[in-house]
Amino acid sequence: MTQRLFGTNGVRGIVNEDMNSALALQLGKAIGSFMGGKVAIATDTRTSRHMISSATIAGLTAVGVEVLDLGVVPTPVLQFYIKNRPEVRGGVMITASHNPPQFNGIKCVDHDGTEMPREKEMDIEGLFWSQIPCADWEDVGSVHPVSEAVEEYLNAVMSHVDAAAIRDACLTVVMDCANGAAYSVGPMLMDRLGVRAVTINADPQGKFPGHPSEPTAENLRDLLSLVVAVGADLGVAFDGDADRAVFVDEKGGYLPGDKSLALVSKAMLSENKGTVVTPVSSSSMVEEVVSAAGGTIDYTAVGSPIVARRMIVTGAIFGGEENGGLIFPDHQFCRDGPMTLAKMLETVVRNGALSQQVAELPVYHTEKRKFLCPNDSKTGLQEKVKEIFRDERVDDTDGIKILFDDGWVLIRASGTEPIFRVYSESKDKDKATERADRISAQLESLVC
Ligand code: MG
Predict the structure, then answer these.
(1) Which one from 33, 53, 97, 426 is the annotated catalytic residue?
(2) pLDDT tens for each residue of 400-430
């Protein structure tokens, strides 16, 4: 093996540089050999989708796989389709999620619709670097277009919310599809729920002319002002493949993902008591809301497949990340943007205006810092950090989280970049800032 192929989100790269048709062909053969039988495939809207998906399909069919082609759909639509079909052995999503349009990626879905676990990716990676035999000519696979996936998915989402109450409320939503995979399913869902949808960036223009597809407040300025201009009940923005959704209140206020995670946690706990799973990097605000609503928080390492896996094992009632990726276990064990939107609409109908719900949340201040650290120095620095803080209360679920009486500091090496991240949170803003500055400066001085 010459290099590591799979990163934290499948295989990603710049098109016709590190992500090219030769790689997609070989990876298609590796995935096909690993999964066998029937494999489903879908793409987001990127202009390179035809090139990457047809090369991947060529690889899959070359080793004898029957390919079910869903076309352009959100990642959770593909995952839901696979989850409901035991005969489908897995799937491939051609997407680079929130990355810029020159990127594309190949992401594997397991037979149960969840994101592919690391161990299985490693098996596929092993095959990728090997000589993979092709099928005899009469066993080469075929491609079958699939048109029913969206309908099934929408029906399922509708069944997990009080659709009649949402319809009766005559809501208006401004929806920013980021020129991505939500462009069709998003407005269709609003139609089914009787919600007036004012859409922006809802053309599948794969060069993303609207704005960069990471749904930050900075990138969503048009959405923020349009929500106020049309008097909408809320605004929603999806990332490129619509597994994440972020929200804007009716006054044009941007909700960081931990706030929507807290509000939906509260709504889920009003229906069933139980555990909410989230990574150690999430705000303590979520824990406070969950506890007040009669639930228990369960912290994991960072990464949505890890959150989903823990939810399956423990029977959690809900889970999610602070980036707008929420997981509804009765629906499916993966992040789901349109499902999150439907649930958020239900909370507005039941609990009142979004700005009011947000105003009732406890206030915490989070400061984020980062500093450069070469990849081969990360382990050494991690050990030094443990030594420095050995007398403090520490949680080492992921990186090192130092627990203070009035907050915490999390120190983590990035999985994708040569940097360390420092998150500092407290109800006291000055303390959060002072600890973030002091600890990141202290650790940066230790980098060789
Ligand atoms: Mg995504």
Answers:
(1) 97
(2) 999 999 999 999 998 778 899 999 999 999 9
Name all domains of the chain by residue range, CATH numbers in brackets: 11-147 (3.40.120.10), 165-359 (3.40.120.10), 365-444 (3.30.310.50)
Of the candidates 59, 47, 52, the residue with the CA atom closest to the CA atom of residue 19: 52
pLDDT at 1 over 60: no
268 CA to centre of ligand 1 in angstroms: 23
State in Å: Cα 239 to ligand 1 middle. Answer: 6
Distance 96 CA to ligand 1 centre (A): 8
Asked whether the predicted pLDDT for residue 67 surpasses 60, the reply is yes
Q: Strand (E) positions, 373-418? A: 393-395, 400-404, 407-413
97 is catalytic: yes
User: What are φ and ψ of residue 298, in 5° steps?
Assistant: -130, 115
Q: Residues in the chain, how many?
A: 448
What is the pLDDT of the chain when averaged over all its residues? 95
Say if residue 2's pLDDT is above 60: no
Question: 97 C-alpha to center of ligand 1: Å?
Answer: 4
